[in-house]
Write a structure and sequence with these properties.
Layout lengths: L6 E5 L3 H12 L3 E6 L24 H14 L4 E3 L5 E4 L5 E4 L1 E3 H4 L7 E8 L7 H14 L4 E8 L11 H7 L3 H11 L8 E5 L8 H11 L3 E4 L6 H16 L3 E4 L3 E7 L2 E7 L6 E4 L2 E4 L10 E4 L2 E4 L24 E3 L12 H18 L4
Parallel strand pairs: 1-2, 1-15, 2-11, 7-8, 7-9, 9-10, 12-16, 15-18
Antiparallel strand pairs: 3-6, 4-5, 12-13, 13-14, 16-17
Helix pairs in contact: 1-8, 1-9, 2-9, 6-7
């Protein structure tokens, strides 16, 4: 008789939670992700910086390899490496240093002697191509970067339905015919530019192949740059990663937040979801808390001795087990990952999410304890 798979429940659908799911399912676990929403990964552009992280620490290279392999299989390829970095421009006229980014974001990076065209729409309050170009030129000059930005302003298009904002445009550009229309408008405006930059709006579901076809239709490389959230790039990453994990056997229970973790004899027994009517109880062998620091639904730990709220930041041991105030594991089968864990803030937040999620997923699937 085949041995029954270990059941792992992950609470939180951000980058750390999804990474934990990937690591646990690769170890042969039966994985369920419970989340009220996609987490902060869907709000940003997906860049990863390893600044202030020890690039030689155990598991980091394995975590990055798993993540980049997953994203390639999901049709949203990442470029870069742990020990290198690239300056990526944003709509505010600044540059952010990243080590890994989706291919379309990576393409926006600064290269010497580059002529770059930034495109936008007239009357769009969320993004001003002319202002962004002026600010980037000033910042580049002050930083000694040999790159020139200029703006190309399009008139509002009649094919854009709904509100005239980035998300509305991105939803329209999920359609291949709409992307062809946009490419036809942009191509005459390039005037010998070596790169076309657009804000995050090239579709919320588009993949590598569609983006490469768009660049071919435009006639030059195309890069995406950060602007106001939500970012189509982040929605794209989350959606494709979720579908990939589902193909790998991960179950997703979405829309309802986790409310309670039930304990008995120092062992976590179940998570209770805040569903309408009767609460939904999900049992498992091991649990990973990856709810992040901006989660408005605070998780309660409930045992016979009473209740306590999970703190805004928590401590973990080398096995990623959640620790109490006396630095003891709250339960042998309870782990934590992501920005909830102390040390996961700042420039390297996504890198920390990848590393801690990977470690927690592996530890939970294998039953590692201290």
């Amino acid at each position: 008789m085949a041995k029954e798979k270990i059941a792992v429940v992950i609470i939180g659908g951000g980058l750390a939670g999804l990474m934990a799911a990937a690591a646990a399912v690769r170890q042969g676990a039966r994985v369920t992700v419970v989340t009220s929403g996609p987490g902060t990964v869907a709000m940003g552009g997906g860049g990863v910086s390893f600044r202030e992280l020890d690039a030689e620490q155990a598991d980091l290279q394995a975590a990055v390899e798993l993540f980049t392999d997953m994203m390639a299989a999901a049709g949203c390829r990442y470029q870069g490496e742990i020990t290198a970095s690239r300056l990526i421009p944003n709509a505010l006229g600044g540059f952010r240093q990243v080590s890994l980014a989706p291919a379309a974001v990576w393409a926006a990076g600064v290269e010497d002697h580059q002529e770059v065209c930034i495109a936008g729409w007239r009357g769009w309050s969320g993004f001003n191509a002319q202002l962004t170009a002026e600010l980037l030129n000033q910042t580049a000059a002050n930083s000694g970067l040999r790159v020139t930005y200029r703006a190309a302003v399009l008139e509002p298009a009649d094919w854009i339905n709904g509100e005239f904002n980035a998300l509305s445009i991105a939803l329209q550009l999920n359609d291949a015919e709409q992307r062809k229309k946009l490419a036809a408008l942009l191509r005459p405006l390039l005037k010998g530019s070596q790169l076309l930059l657009l804000p995050f709006l090239l579709g919320t579901t588009t993949g590598d192949q569609e983006l490469e076809e768009f660049a071919a239709a435009v006639g030059c490389p195309v890069g995406e740059m950060a602007h106001m959230a939500p970012a189509a790039s982040g929605l794209r990453i989350y959606g494709r990663l979720q579908k990939y994990l589902q193909r790998c056997g991960v179950e997703f229970r979405t829309a309802y937040p986790a409310r309670l973790l039930h304990f008995r004899r120092n062992c976590c027994q179940a998570v209770v979801l805040d569903t309408p009517g009767r609460p939904c109880v999900v049992k498992a062998d091991r649990f990973i808390v990856a709810t992040g620091t901006i989660n408005s639904h605070r998780l309660i730990l409930e045992s016979l001795s009473g209740r306590q709220e999970v703190a805004e930041t928590v401590a973990v041991n080398e096995c990623q087990q959640l620790l109490d105030r006396e630095s003891r594991p709250v339960a042998g089968n309870l782990y934590a990952a992501g920005s909830l864990v102390a040390g996961g803030q700042g420039y390297n937040g996504n890198a920390f999410a990848l590393l801690s999620g990977y470690k927690a997923g592996r530890a939970a699937a294998k039953g590692d304890e201290l």
